[in-house]
Amino acid sequence: MTFLTLTLPSRATPKRRPIQFIVWLALFFSVLTHAATPEQIESIQKAAEAHVLNTIDQPTGGEIVAKAGNIDSRMHATDCPSGLETSASTTRNTSSNITVLVQCKADEWRLYVPVRVSISLPLVTATRPLARGNLVTQGDVTMKMIEQHRFRRQAFTTFDQVVGSKLKRNVNVGDVIERNDVCVVCRNEKVIIKAVKSGMTISTKGTALSDGSNGEQVRVKNDKSQRIIEGIVTGVAEITVHF
């Protein structure tokens, strides 16, 4: 609570002092009357947080946490009879801070409230130290919620994208496994090329010319014909080509 201090002039006459005291009391109680109550402040903060949660797209399998900043208790607020209205200039999922306008048109007051936004996504992480050259097994990985602003590189969101792949570098326990850390199909290594046409499948051997994860397109050389083609990684050391 903020207190107003009014110093009476030393030259004030005894007759004027009661009047000045009354003015001081009027100012003091005016501040108390218009200052926001803890309940009103909480209501404003919740309105700002709700606006962010209702306007930002929910990431698949992810979580959004919105936390309104502190509000000065000296601000003017009322129990808005028409209900609080909210708006913001941005609703981008990439914003970590969003300023929300909370206003009561009926009582003619408004307030800009900063809201901290934290978006977490489920990403594949290592359960133990993993060495370069090893194949990733189901027990080597787990899913962990990671804040989006802390991890902006390419990562994996499902186990089948990682399990069975080969590590290209060492990974520490708890680390998010990145696309550059593994290869399901590895450059210069032998692969099986599956040629699919009209429901028929013919398999032959080839050599991968680039690294790739499940679902990615890579270049591969047919060892028999020496022809270079492009296919989709469909499994460990397996590339499928549709004709």
Count every beta strand, where a strand is a DSSP E run of 2 or more residues. 12
| Percent in strands | 25-35%
Summed up, the domain count is 3
What share of residues is helical? 10-25%
Low-confidence stretches: 1-8, 21-33
Biggest β-sheet description: 5 strands, antiparallel
- What is the SS-derived class? alpha+beta
GO cellular component, one term: periplasmic space
Pfam families: ChapFlgA (PF13144), ChapFlgA_N (PF17656)
Function: Involved in the assembly process of the P-ring formation. It may associate with FlgF on the rod constituting a structure essential for the P-ring assembly or may act as a modulator protein for the P-ring assembly.
Keywords: Bacterial flagellum biogenesis, Cell projection, Cilium, Flagellum, Periplasm, Signal
Describe what you observe in this structure:
The longest helix has 18 residues, at about 15-35. Residues about 1-10 and about 20-35 have low confidence and may be disordered. This protein is about 15% helix and about 35% strand. The protein is α+β, with helices and mostly antiparallel strands. The N and C termini lie far apart (about 75 Å). The chain has helices at about 15-35, 40-55, and strands spanning about 65-70, 85-90, 95-105, 110-125, 140-145, 165, 180-185, 190-195, 200-210, 215-220, 230-235, 240. The strands form 3 sheets. Strands 1, 2, 3, 4 and 5 form a 5-stranded antiparallel sheet that branches. One of its GO terms (biological process) is bacterial-type flagellum assembly. Involved in the assembly process of the P-ring formation. It may associate with FlgF on the rod constituting a structure essential for the P-ring assembly or may act as a modulator protein for the P-ring assembly. This is Flagella basal body P-ring formation protein FlgA.
